[in-house]
From TrEMBL:
Keywords: Signal. GO terms for biological process: proteolysis. This is Trypsin. Residues 1-24 form the signal peptide. GO terms for molecular function: serine-type endopeptidase activity.
Amino acid sequence: MRAPASVRLAVVAVAAAVLTSCGAAYPAPPQAAEPVTSTPPSAHPVSPDSRVGAVFLDTDGIHVCSASVLSSAVADLILTAAHCVADGVDATFVPGYSDSRPAEPGRHLDAVYLDPRWLRDQDPAADYAIARVSRGDGPALQTIAVGGLRLGPAPAPGTAVTVVGYGYGVGGGPTACTVATAAPREGFPAVHCDGIVAGFSGAPWIAGSTVVGLIGGLDGGGCLDEVSYSPRFDGALPALMARAEAGGPADTPPAAFDDGCG
């Protein structure tokens, strides 16, 4: 849901035209969505964070997803939702994006690494992607991002996280919500925060200098603006990062994604 339906259709159309550390223990998850019984906090505008940026598809100037910079000594790597990348569609990441300050040059997604479960059948439990990015000149991404974010395990319920992302569109800046994680649903970590809208797919859940989740997973991150999910970070994600750092063959993403929200 966090990548707008219109964008998903555009991704499919462009693709056709081109032809081309274990997580913390959890209690037993509820079998159905927990109703939000009180007014959740709302996302609000914040100053740009160089560790977080917007993802643009092709060159239309519209940012459609969000991503974060990973701490790595050997490569410029970013983390986003797997459903934000598609076969045959060029993407660019702009760290610390905001139309209120000079734009940082974008970095092209050169290689995308995906979990085998996502490649096989777009399993929402593996709705994360690590990409190697580059630009023609300029400093390393970690220099701009003050080192980037470390990968951490899935948060236990009650963990304070800050979700930072970009609403779908042209221009603007980041918004964020700081909230305690809720009980997971079907094994997917959850947060209750209003205003996490289309375009937030891939937005990191930050605890200190660690990323412990991202908007994605169940229903593409959630079918309601006030309830959002993350794929559960477990040992598969550090293994994926190791593969990305080694610079081996990249994966070819699927061409389409259906979040099931209707």
